[in-house]
Amino acid sequence: MKTLYIPRRSLLLCLLLGLAGTLPAQESKPAPLDVMTLAAVPDGTYQVTLELKQLDGTAATVALAAKDGILASTTETERFGRIQGRTAFIGNGVFMVQLKGKGYMATQYWVFRPDGTAAIKEIPDRGEKQSAVPVRAGR
After folding, report:
1. Tens digit of pLDDT for each residue in 54-75?
2. Burial of 96 (0-12, 13-18, 19+ CB in 10 A)
3. Is residue 103 part of a domain?
4. Do the domain assignments include residue 58?
5. Which DSSP helix (H) or strand (E) runs through 19?
6. What pLDDT shows up at residue 1?
7. Angstrom distance (rounded) from CA 105 to CA 42
8. Rounded-to-integer distance, Cα 29 and Cα 136, Å
9. Which residues contact 130 (CB under 8 A, 6 or more apart)?
10. What is the rounded CA–CA span in Å between residue 23 and residue 57?
11. Domain count of the chain?
């Protein structure tokens, strides 16, 4: 019986080429946001992390839907009820946001970044670490 010799590199290349069709496609990254021309908060849902130093000091995460400059929580919570708010354009991807819920009121600046997230600064700023992260389809 004759043994067939296949070099390791060739075998590895054949295996890789054969598996390439079965590997999941990489997620495509969204195009960078041009914050300098951004004149409205992009419509969509945002996971917003709030650090509530003015209330009890605990952090909270809420989902806010943005549409045509209006923000509204996607669900009612025991802590906040329904949060609603509005946005006002300041300039260069910066927006003043006013939010109101059950026992909660805040005025904030949302500073958008090219990746679509926004850093949130309270007025007055107490050193909170807050952010708004867009919820991508399929997540």
Report:
1. 666 778 899 999 999 999 999 9
2. middle
3. yes
4. yes
5. helix 8-20
6. 57
7. 22
8. 10
9. 48, 49, 50, 51, 108, 119, 120, 121, 122
10. 45
11. 1
Q: What is the pLDDT of residue 25?
A: 53
Does position 48 have pLDDT exceeding 80, yes or no? yes
Distance CA 104, CA 63 (A): 15
- Residue written as tokens 């906040």? 80
Copy the structure tokens of residue 131.
């952010």
pTM assigned to the model: 0.75
Q: Which range of residues forms the domain containing residue 49?
A: 35-134
Residue 125's CATH number: 2.40.128
Hey, which residues does 89 pair with through a beta bridge? Answer: 95
Pair 71, 86: CB distance under 8 Å: yes
Inside any domain, residue 26: no
- Residue found under tokens 């399929």: 138
- Mean of the pLDDT values across residues 101-130? 92
Q: Is residue 28 domain-resident?
A: no
Q: Where are the beta strands (DSSP E) in the chain?
A: 44-51, 59-67, 70-73, 84-91, 94-101, 104-112, 118-122, 130-134
Does residue 120 carry a pLDDT above 90? yes
